[in-house]
Write a structure and sequence with these properties.
The chain is an all-alpha fold. The protein has one domain (3-88). It contains four helices and no strands.
């Protein structure tokens, strides 16, 4: 797996990488990778929820756009944190390959 496979078009960790890392998460000494992946998925769901709020409550558009933007920023932070932790835990090598 190369670097472009780690990230999707938005610069976030790809679903393929998440799935592979999630399978490997129980093999590391602690549950931090799995916990971060769970947090990432919750933030993704919150970002999607904000789009629904924009559609359903246009009077609160400014608030929900701000929340959605903040949520996307969190997705990027957690995405980068997952990849860095996976490298530190030996799950991703120096060539950005997820180790089998």
């Amino acid at each position: 797996m190369n670097n472009t496979d780690l990230l999707n078009k938005s610069g976030l960790i790809s679903e393929e990488a998440i799935e592979k890392l999630q399978k490997k998460a129980p093999d590391v000494s602690c549950q931090c990778p799995g916990q971060l992946i769970d947090i990432y998925r919750q933030i993704q769901a919150f970002t999607e929820y904000q789009q629904q709020c924009l559609n359903q409550k246009p009077q609160d558009e400014m608030i929900h756009k701000w929340l959605q933007s903040s949520s996307v920023n969190l997705e990027h932070i957690i995405s980068n944190t997952i990849i860095t932790l996976a490298r530190l835990e030996g799950m991703i090598d120096e060539h950005n390959q997820i180790l089998e």
